[in-house]
Write a structure and sequence with these properties.
alpha+beta; about 30% helix; five-stranded mixed beta sheet; 6 helices; elongated
Length: about 220
Amino acid sequence: MALQLGDTAPDFEAETTEGPIKFHDWIGDSWAVLFSHPKDFTPVCTTELGYMANAKPEFDRRDVKIIGLSVDPTDKHEQWAQDIAETQGTAPNYPIIADSNFEVSKLYGMLAADVSGDPGDRTPADNQTVRNVFVIGPDKKIKLILVYPMTTGRNFDEVLRVIDSLQLTAKHKVATPVNWQRGDDVIIAGSVSDDEAREKYPDGWESPKPYIRIVPEPSSK
């Protein structure tokens, strides 16, 4: 069964570049982003891992832990990190899972259950489906799944934008409209009655249609 939004993120134990982890324990009470790679020493992934290293303070500010995964062993990850530092300006400053037994890739539906053998014998094309982004909440539920082709670098600014929306809408009973950015107006959630909405928004709301109730972004405090 493919993972769906709202499913519990599969727990696992794995070796990483920062030592062994048990995934749910590693997440703790934080949010998390797990982003996967078909193989080490691939050009697009090199740029992505470097970007995430530079963007880590933005994730930290939102209490989001980031963790990579690649279908190769830890020693290859460590060699790759040197290339990432040299070409992107920053080495990975977060753990990268060594998924050389394909366990996590299979758990998360990125590789077929019958995949086996030496990861060194597999090409990036063999693992091209290991190009996902999973955003996971403190409740260990999957909040976002993105899947990218190997030839298209991921937009991690969009991942941050979605996390901002997820965190806002988890705290306040609102939804965010198309292309929303922090500070933009939001929409009162459909689950909120007009009577309940009047208590929270005594100044009312803009309503071009009865089912669209637009208000300023609620305070994050």
